[in-house]
From TrEMBL:
Residues 1-50 are annotated as: Disordered. InterPro entries: TPR-like_helical_dom_sf, TPR_rpt. GO terms for biological process: cell division. The keyword Repeat applies. This is Anaphase-promoting complex subunit 6. TPR repeats lie at residues 355-388, 389-422, 457-490, 496-529, 530-563. PROSITE patterns: TPR. Residues 17-26 have a biased composition (Low complexity). It comes from Urochloa decumbens. The keyword Cell division applies.
Amino acid sequence: MRDTNFGFPREPPTTSPAPAEAAAEPSPKRRRVGEAAEEPPPPPELEMGEESLERLRGVVRDSVGKHLYSSAIFLADKVAAATGDPADVYMLAQALFLGRHYRRALHLLNNSRLLRDLRFRFLAAKCLEELKEWHQCLLMLGDAKVDEHGKVLDQDDGSDIYFDKDSENHEINIKAAICFLRGKAYEALDNRDLARQWYKAAIKADPLCYEALECLVDNYMLTCEEESELLSSLQFGKEDGWLSSFYSCLIRKHEKEYVVEAKFKELERESCSISSSSSSETLKNNIDVLACKAEYYHQSGEYQKCWQLTSSLLERDPFHLKCTLVHLAAAMELGHSNDLYLLSCNLVKDYPQKALSWFAVGCYYYCIKKYDQARRYFGKATGLDGTFPPAWIGTGIAYAAQEEGDQAMTAFRTAARLFPGCHLPTLYMGMQYVRMHNFKLAEQFFTQAKSICPSDPLIYNELGVVAYNMKEYQKAVQLFELTLDHTSSSLNEMWEPTLVNLGHALRKLKQYQKAVSYYEKALTFPTKSLSAFAGLAYTYHLMDDFEAAINYYHKALWLKPDDQFCTDMLTYALESSCHSTARRRIV
């Protein structure tokens, strides 16, 4: 058993007095004069054979695989001490890193004098990343420049001088990993422009470096056009056609239905080329692929289809956070407050430090129209993660719901600054200016949103609203028709206001029959609005069809009995109908 005093001085051992006769006996081990001294035993053999070393390396790898990091560190240390081989030193540094001994791993790598090798340098930079020493991390990675298109200039190439090249085809390029780490460091230092460029460099260096594309897409660092250009510039291997198709599905969420459906079908075909028929069915039903499709349904306004798909996916994997975010958005649109409550409780319990959890709580309070509490939890989400786009947008929308336009604009401006590739903050700022009847400024913001994402139908609808309010009715008709052209082939209730708006604009142009057809199309949806009934009634009134006008004025007043316009126009229509009937009788 070990005798440990933790640095304190030892006390002399307590002994009991020996009997006198025992003291007089000679010691059996006492050496006589002239007698030769005994040789000490030889030290144990510490050298290891190559077979023993190889066995220990295998045990280290197995210990890492079983997350037994202390065992891995202990054994790797002995192997590295015995050989001094750079590969064994790297193995020890990896074990230290995985065991969260970042300072010790960094010290080992610095003392090894092997930082010419990119892998050693990258692992040292990863240690500095975990220690949040971002400037030192960038210094460790070396000087390099990158242009706007993600092309690396003046890079210190270094080399993988201590490692075999045989496995490179089965690895992500180390230079892609270094570019990605540079991007993370610049993002942490709030230099989002350089972060974007290094992420682009990482995905270009190796299309398999998915983290780089994930950061670009999830943090809205690129416009839709820039995403398409980046995707077309990637050089995929012959066997990576499925990956190209998946990336296309990931970024084309505002395209027309036939374009998106074609991309998903192409992904299904490509998946068959990398696996047998049975496993291709598994890839076809992969949760990441289906979550991407659910996000498309949400963007298209097909909230019920989105909800059903995400519900089934979360039954398979309740902790798939990207799918959870889409599920939250669909539940918000459908007003499923009970589901939001249960989901937010589970998220807060499982992930109390994630922004998504508190964003879910904010969504619940917004859904039940408690906007103060919603703002508080959206604010908590932004406090945990300042780069979480939905929380900033949710904060602005919650302020706007309470008619607090200045605070809403502040939140939207922050989101627009942080996420230059997201058109929603700019779009919502334009909507705020429409509320203020500042149509010129609103048009500028809608045009800016269009430059970021030209395929979102909602932008054209809002531009049409601006043109209508500025009495440019022909332009409004063109924009509302363009809105319908950009929607999916099967219109849903999300676009009912666009049909009504188009009817209003056509009525202003005295194209009454066309206006009636769009009003009637709007009334085929379950959400029958007062505006549709009132617009249809007034159009019939202008066509001197008083009976139909009276019928629809009554239907409008059934929805809102105190509507002044419909009440006055109903009275006028009744009087006109009576005068018309009287004239017919006289004739």
